[in-house]
Amino acid sequence: MRVSVIGCGHLGIPHAAAMAELGHEVIGVDVDRAKVNRLNAGECPIYETGLPDLIARQTVSGRLRFTTEIREAADVAELHFIGVGTPIDADGRSYDTGQVYGAIRQLAPHLLHDRREVDRHGRHDRPGHRPRPAPRAHR
Ligand SMILES: NC(=O)c1ccc[n+]([C@@H]2O[C@H](COP(=O)([O-])OP(=O)(O)OC[C@H]3O[C@@H](n4cnc5c(N)ncnc54)[C@H](O)[C@@H]3O)[C@@H](O)[C@H]2O)c1
Question: Which of 28, 44, 47, 92 is most buried when burial is the number of CB atoms within 10 A of its CB?
Answer without folding.
Answer: 28
